[in-house]
Design a protein that fits this description.
This protein is an alpha/beta fold and 406 residues long. The protein folds into two domains: 14-220 and 257-275, 3-Layer(aba) Sandwich (Aspartate Aminotransferase, domain 2); 278-405, Aspartate Aminotransferase, domain 1. The chain has 14 helices and 17 strands. It has helices at residues 14-24, 33-46, 57-67, 85-92, 111-121, 139-149, 206-215, 265-275, 278-295, 297-301, 333-342, 358-364, 372-380, 392-405; strands spanning 50-54, 75-78, 96-99, 102-103, 108-109, 126-128, 152-156, 164-167, 170-173, 182-186, 199-203, 220-221, 253-254, 305-306, 314-315, 321-325, 381-384. The strands form five sheets. Strands 1-11-10-7-6-2-3 form a seven-stranded mixed β-sheet, with helices on both faces. Strands 9-8-15 form a three-stranded antiparallel β-sheet, with no helix packed on it. Helix 4 links the parallel strand 2 (75-78) and strand 3 (96-99). Helix 3 (57-67) crosses helix 4. The relative contact order is 0.16. Bound molecules: pyridoxal-5'-phosphate (PLP). Pyridoxal-5'-phosphate (PLP) is lined by residues 56-58, 61, 82-83, 85-86, 130, 156, 158-159, 186, 188, 199.
Length: 406
């Protein structure tokens, strides 16, 4: 088999294509009705009150930090095992991105390590737990800590649309913001649903939602209730509808230094169509994860591999399948990685710990010794292909190739 099998990829149906084409035939390519429809559908899906869709997940994280009025010099704490954007959003605001170690049982940011950080290094302004690989971070525990220490919470749910977790016998969706101030999604093509590029911020807070809408649209406010000063000139002639108390429809104010973070109707039409298939995608992703787990069960018993976490009380919509090489494995991660690549199986390493990146290293000189679990994980992990259109032939080929090398 010479074709390339990627670690993740989109699944596009004829309905998806038709949905996009219908927007192209319509009057609105951007700022039209599909955007609000997509936002409403996402808010319903996650169970949050507000959703603001934006151009990508990175901007969504940036806006989330700005909506907290994060000031230069303030610290934000996130997981070192994440994509760069989880930390960069703090740096964009002039903040110091710092890290606490992961919990090896979930591979997500450890609440215990965050508490230890608060006690020994000071309370950060914001903590950004990441639902790594689709496994929910321990959000209820983070909420308790945020109340105890007073930091804000942004859930980076870029991997986790469709994932749920139980707490006190109730089930919550990732992105519901029941245990966080805001949650962020990404719709990059390797994610569970895609809009090409795209992202969204969810919140249950009306003021934060209004701020986010402004930030994503040049800082512009159009809601008369929120106008600060009305610079509309007095009406020149009697009978005019224009007055200082009721501004004309063309009036708007700029309240903050916002951005153009808008998403298009073309993208949102694709997102709406994809969202209808979320449950199917989730079932397929779980089925593949289950089949991998079964295929590797013996290797796990022999401590040759460590299977990805599937914590009790969680129902993850798996974005990744990050398997680890165990203590009794006789080959290195890189030998396995390169061997699989020769066979066209393009695995990936998710992720190089962010504190190891030259930008952060040069700026803050983080000591990797502070993060033993992240280091252990990083040195042994490889993400095997996981995408809904993976057929049985591809699956068997991956398993056989993996066993050949191991
Ligand atoms: C955990 C995490 N957060 C944020 C992002 C950023 O999302 P986007 O690629 O849509 O900017 C990604 C994307 O890979 C991610 O994996």
């Amino acid at each position: 088999m010479t074709r390339i099998i990627p670690y993740g990829k989109q699944s596009i149906s004829e309905e998806d294509i038709e949905a996009v084409c219908s927007v192209l035939r319509s009057d609105w390519l951007t700022q039209g009705p599909r955007v609000r429809e997509f936002e409403d559908a996402l808010a319903r899906q996650c169970g949050a009150r507000h959703c603001i869709a934006v151009s990508n997940g990175t901007m969504a994280l940036h806006f989330a930090c700005l909506a907290l009025d994060m000031a230069p010099g303030e610290t934000g704490l996130t997981s070192p095992i994440s994509f760069l954007a989880s930390a960069n959003c703090i740096a964009y605001c002039g903040g110091r991105a710092d890290f606490a170690d992961i919990d090896p049982k979930t591979l997500c940011l450890s609440p215990e390590k965050v508490e230890e950080y608060c006690k020994t290094q000071g309370v950060p302004r914001v903590v950004i737990p990441v639902d790594f690989a689709g496994v929910p971070a321990d959000l209820p525990q983070f909420k308790l800590l945020s109340e105890k220490y007073g930091f804000a919470l942004i859930e980076d749910a870029a991997h986790a649309i469709g994932s749920t977790y139980k707490h006190a016998d109730k089930e919550y969706a990732c992105g519901s913001c029941v245990h966080t101030d805001m949650s962020v999604l990404s719709f990059h093509p390797v994610k569970t649903i895609t809009t090409g590029e795209g992202g969204a911020i969810l919140t249950n807070d009306d003021n934060i939602a209004a701020k986010l809408r402004q930030l994503a649209n040049h800082g512009i406010e159009k809601d008369p209730i929120r106008f600060v000063t009305c610079h509309v000139p007095a009406p020149r002639y009697a009978g005019s509808l224009v007055s200082r108390n009721s501004p004309p429809p063309w009036y708007y104010e700029m309240h903050s230094l916002g951005f153009n973070g808008r998403i298009t109707d073309i993208q949102c039409a694709l997102g709406l169509s994809q969202l209808k298939r979320l449950e199917t995608f989730k079932a397929k992703r779980q089925e593949i994860a289950r089949r991998y787990n079964e295929a590797f069960a013996e290797l796990e018993r022999e401590q040759v591999v460590i299977l990805p976490p599937w914590p009790a009380g969680t129902d993850p919509c798996f974005h990744l399948y990050p398997i680890r090489l165990g203590p009794d494995c006789r080959i290195s991660r890189d030998e396995l990685f390169l061997g699989l690549r020769e066979k066209g199986i393009y695995c990936q390493v998710h992720y190089i710990p962010i504190y190891r990146q030259p930008f952060y290293r040069q700026k803050y000189n983080y000591n990797p010794g502070r993060f033993p679990e992240a280091e252990n994980y990083f040195n042994s992990c490889v993400s095997l292909p996981l995408f809904p259109d993976m057929d049985d032939e591809i699956f068997q080929y991956i398993i056989k190739s993996f066993y050949d090398f191991i």
